[in-house]
Amino acid sequence: MPTPLETLVASGTKVWLDSIDPDLVVENRKFGATGATSNPIIISDLLKTGRFDDQIRALAAKGLNDADIAWEMTDRLVKQAQEVFAEVNTSTKGNDGYVSFELDPLLEDKSCTLSVADKAKQYIELGKKWAAGHKNRMIKVPATPGGLAALEDLCAAGITLNVTLLFTARQYQAARDAVWRGAQRRASLDGFKSVYSIFVSRIDVYTEKHVPDLIPAAQGQVGIVNAKRLWQENQKFWADKKLPLKQEFIFASTGTKDPKLPPDKYVEALAGADIQTNPPATNAAVQKLAGKTYSRKVDQLPSADVLADIDRKVDFAKLEQVLMDEGLAKFADPFKALLQTIASKR
Description:
Elements: H1 4-10, E1 14-17, H2 22-31, E2 35-36, H3 40-48, H4 53-61, H5 66-91, E3 99-102, H6 116-131, E4 137-142, H7 145-156, E5 161-166, H8 169-183, E6 194-199, H9 201-210, H10 222-239, E7 248-252, H11 265-269, E8 275-278, H12 280-287, H13 304-313, H14 316-345
Parallel strand pairs: 1-2, 1-8, 3-4, 4-5, 5-6, 6-7, 7-8
Helix pairs in contact: 2-5, 3-14, 5-14, 6-7, 7-8
C-alpha cells in the first residue's frame, strides 16, 4: 500500500523538503522528495545544533571571518543536498532535482542603505558566484525591488532561478516577465528553468488578524485561493512558449499554523501539480496519516460567494507590504543570529 506522500507524488505534485539537514534530506528522499530548499533560518538552526562545530573550527583556524564561515557552510550543506538529488536532475533532464541557495538577506535589511540599482548589482554578482559550476542548484532571489531588478540579467546569464517571497499577482507578474525577458537573451532555451515560490499559510495568518470580517467559508482560504489563481495564470502564460522544461510554481509555507486544523490542510488543497516545498514536520505528519490518499485539487476553486467575499474585502497591496516586511525580517534576523552563533563558537 502506498504511503500518503507517495500518493501525493502520484497526483502530480513534486515534493521538495524545506530543509537541507543532511539526515532529513536522505530520509525524505526515501519518502519520495525530489528536491530541497534552504534559507538563513534553516542554516542558522543547523549550525546551532553543534553537529558542524568541527568544520566551523577548521574554517576559523584558516582565518575566515564569521560571514565567510556562514557562507562556506551554506555552500557545503547545499552542495551535499545537491548530491542526493543529482540523479533526479539527470533522469528528468533538468525538470526536477534542484536545491535552492538563498542570496545575502542583509541586502534587504532595514539598515542597508544601498539603492535599488546597487542592490540589483549585488544580487547579480552573488548569483553568478554561487551558481558557478552547479548543475542542479537554484539561486533564490526575493521579489523585492532590488531582487526583481536583478532577475533579467541573472536569467540571461544562464542561471536557474527560484523567485521567492511572492504573495501577490503584482509580484509574480513582475518576476515572471523579467525572467522571460532574460531567457530570450540566451543563446538557447534548452536549459531554461525557473520557479516561483508563492507563500500560502502566511496569508491566512494575515487575514485572520487584519481581515476578520471575511465570511467563515472564506477565512482560512485566501492563501489557497491566491495560490491557485496565480498557478492558473502561470499555466496560461507558458502554455504557448513551447519550452523544453517546465516553468513551475513552488507552493511554499505549507505548514499548518493552527494546531486545531489538519496538518495537511495546504498539502491536500494544492495537490496535483508543480512543487510543494514542505517543512520536515509537515512531511512527517503527512506520513502518519495512515490510509490517506491525495488526488488533484490544485485546479479546484471554492464557490463564487467565497471568491467574491475575498475579492471585496482583501486589500492585496496592503497584504503584500505587511507580509514582505515580516518575511524579510524573518530572513535577515536569523542571518544576524547565525553570525552571532559563529562568533560565540569562535
